[in-house]
Structures are given as structure tokens and as C-alpha cells.
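The instructor's notes for this session suggest beginning with a concrete chain rather than abstract definitions. Hand out the sequence below and ask the class to guess, before any prediction is shown, which regions might be ordered.
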Amino acid sequence: MIKGKDLLIIVALLLGGVIVPVVGWLFALGLLLKSESWDLKAKLIGALIPPLGYFPLSVILLVPSFTNSCVNSPNLNRQQTLRCATAVFSYSGTEIVVIAVLTILPALNALYLYRSAKKHTA
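After discussion, reveal the predicted structure:
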């Protein structure tokens, strides 16, 4: 069974950078690297795939798409304003792929760390 501290490290790697931007993830990374529950390969994978956990995803989702040029126009009627507002939060195909990757990779990384810690602590 995985230790509580190891589970906390995994969760902190995922969410630490979102709760306390960058510093939270760095703290979790330090705990991961000091832990004896993972071998060097697992520690490198945990540190590098992807770095900062869900922080990059949260930045992308919180910053509106910059592809829309009508946002700063003061002379829009109601329909144009509504169309413009919905376009601000639309993403291109590339952005959708990046969002998907930044959603899936940290989850797979957490699962890998969980499974590899379980092997080393059993």
C-alpha cells in the first residue's frame, strides 16, 4: 500500500503549482526527489512530464484567446458584443490539442508515480 506522504507528494505535484504558483510545485518536486519511495527513473519522469503539474493548463484556461480582435472595440452593438464574448473563449485546434495534452499528461504521470511507489513500498 502507498504511504500517505507519497500520496501527498503526488497530489502536490499535480496541484501545488496551481495553489501556490510555481513555488508549490517546486516544493513538491523537492519532496519527490528526497523521497526513498521512487527510483531515479520514476523521479525523473515525475519531475519532467510535464513540469509544473496543472499550472500551465490553468494559465491557458484563465487567459482568454488572443486571436480575437474585436474585444477592444468600443463600437459594438449587442449582437456583435455577444458574438465577440463567445469568441474570446474559443480555442483553435492547436490550442485544444495543447489543452488535452496538458490535462492528460499530469494525470498519467500521477498514475505512474502511484503505481511505481506502490511497487517500491510493498
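Then share the key points. The mean pLDDT is 82. The helical segments are 4-19, 23-34, 40-48, 55-62, 78-88, 93-121.
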